[in-house]
Automatic annotation (TrEMBL):
This is Simple sugar transport system ATP-binding protein. GO terms for molecular function: ATP binding; ATP hydrolysis activity. It holds the Pfam family ABC_tran. The lineage of its organism: Bacteria, Bacillati, Actinomycetota, Actinomycetes, Micrococcales. Residues 3-239, 255-499 form the ABC transporter domain.
Length: 505
């Protein structure tokens, strides 16, 4: 089935998320829609899938104009979507999830689960998926859950398949397996739209590439294009994809973590006997698939989460048991995983956010009175130094792009007298240009002799930034290895296989 989008425009108030976008996808083709977060890719696909209604433009399938009032219409027309965040019910079986919304019944109105099981087996056998129809979805690894999403779409005879950032929660090996599945679907005649911002994946699997920037198509590219060429199209300028850094120069000051344990509200251990040391002048990256305890580890290090055991010492001083305020006063910079909830106050100005946790004493407050002139002068300096794109220091920070919001957080944290930097997902949701800037500042902090802990689910980022990489799986440390370790070995470690076994594999 041939897909055409003509002049698709979608507005949200004054924001034009899609601006007269044209896209054509042929049967038996993988067409990559490449662009940074916020470029309008997912909005466009939500229009295609019937979740949004376009303000202008039209959708055509095999030359016939379509009118979708919801996802049911899109599915009935042969469009399937595999979402970044799985649309599955964990307590249901695979067969129950696949039939949900399209239930077949027997005489008397009873659900025909046997028919659903048969359909799952047929599709799984065709594509070599090895999925048990009676397995509970919540018990399956994320890579298998994604295959259930694909089976769900194919069970409804989808001939146009949309993959929206499908590799966000996968290990490198699971990503490679997904690429192989996409190629098999293509060989079967499916028209595939692959949405991503990861350049390596684009060049590996795409037949054609359309690049979107700020809601507009800015060009088409060939899969043979270099990463630098694709990045320049995405951002609109030349980008340094890997920030150069020399060998680490360790200093005596260090963060020492011993036997750290964290439990969740149900009593389950989510950080299990974690130990490591980071010296000044080096970056330790904590890597792993999202949900394996990295978030809880980072929050425990900075006092945001209560621990149930262990020790966290900075230059010999215990941090556990201290409040976040006391941890900050000890010289710890915190770049939180979710900047909008934990790093910024959206309604506050850029200037207010730049001194958000520094208004209770010198230099920005005296005798309980905020020194506005000093604060504003500081804010203007940081806006220039960190290249924060804003109309002014009085602009509410919630109006800035994701990359500029992250620069505000980074400017505030790196402006204190640092003895430790903990940065969780420092480049999540920012464009390639901002990634370049953020990486450079992190490397500069490391070169200044500060211990740096970076938590990242992006393997490319872990390799680019880290001097050493600590891999976590189900709350435990699988191993700590040099950043020069191969992607294949790191991927196996992220699946819980120790380094010695991963090397042998």
């Amino acid at each position: 089935m041939k897909l055409e989008l003509r002049g698709i425009t979608k507005r949200f108030g004054a924001l034009v998320a899609n601006d007269h976008i044209d896209l054509r996808v042929e049967p038996g083709e993988i067409h990559c829609l490449l662009g940074e977060n916020g470029a309008g890719k997912s909005t466009l696909m939500n229009v295609l899938y019937g979740l949004y209604t376009a303000d202008e433009g039209e959708i055509l399938l095999d030359g016939a104009v379509q009118r979708f009032t919801g996802p049911g219409d899109a599915m009935a027309a042969g469009i399937g979507m595999v979402h970044q965040h799985f649309m599955l019910i964990p307590v249901f079986t695979v067969a129950e999830n696949v039939m949900l919304g399209h239930e077949q019944t027997r005489v008397g109105g009873r659900l025909d689960l046997d028919a659903a099981r048969t359909r799952v087996r047929e599709i799984a056998d065709r594509f070599g998926f090895h999925v048990d129809p009676d397995a509970l979805v919540g018990d399956l690894p994320v890579g298998v859950q994604q295959r259930v999403e694909i089976i769900k779409a194919l069970s409804r005879d989808a001939r146009v398949l949309v993959f929206d950032e499908p590799t966000a929660v996968l290990t490198p090996q699971e990503t490679d397996e997904l690429m192989a599945v996409m190629r098999r679907l293509k060989e079967g005649g499916a028209a595939i739209v692959f949405i991503t911002h990861k350049l390596r994946e684009v060049r590996e699997v795409a037949d054609r590439i359309t690049v979107v920037r700020r809601g507009r198509v800015v060009g088409e590219a060939s899969p043979t294009s270099t990463d630098a060429e694709l990045a320049a199209l995405m951002v609109g300028r030349a980008v340094e994809l890997t920030v150069p850094k020399g060998p680490p120069q360790p200093t005596p000051n260090a963060l020492e973590v011993q036997g750290l344990e964290v439990t969740d509200p149900t009593g389950a251990v989510v950080v299990d006997d974690v130990s490591f040391t980071v010296h000044g002048g080096e970056v330790l990256v904590v890597a792993g698939v999202q949900g394996n305890g990295q978030t809880e580890l980072a929050e425990a290090l900075v006092g945001l989460r209560t621990t149930s055991g262990g020790s966290v010492r900075l230059d010999g001083t215990e941090l556990l048991g201290r409040s976040v305020r006391q941890v900050l006063d000890a010289g710890v910079g915190i770049v939180p995983e979710d900047r909008t909830h934990d790093g910024l106050v959206g309604a506050f100005s850029v200037a207010e956010n730049l001194v958000l946790d520094r208004t209770d004493g010198a230099p920005f407050a005296r005798g309980g009175v905020l020194q506005l002139g000093l604060r504003d002068r500081f804010a203007r300096e940081k806006v220039e130094e960190f290249d924060i794109r804003t109309q002014g220091i009085d602009t509410p920070v919630g109006r800035l792009s994701g990359g500029n919001q992250q620069k505000v957080v980074l400017a505030r944290e790196l402006s204190r007298d640092l003895r430790l930097l903990v940065a969780s997902q420092p480049t999540r949701g920012v464009d390639v240009g901002s990634i370049e800037f953020i990486h450079r500042r992190i490397v500069e902090t490391r070169d200044a002799g500060v211990p740096v802990v970076v938590v990242s689910t992006e393997l490319d980022e872990a390799v680019a930034l880290g001097d050493r990489i600590l891999v976590m799986y189900r709350g435990r440390v699988v191993g700590i290895v040099p950043a020069s370790t191969s992607r294949d070995v790191l991927g196996l470690m992220m699946a819980g296989i120790p380094q010695t076994e991963a090397d042998a594999a």
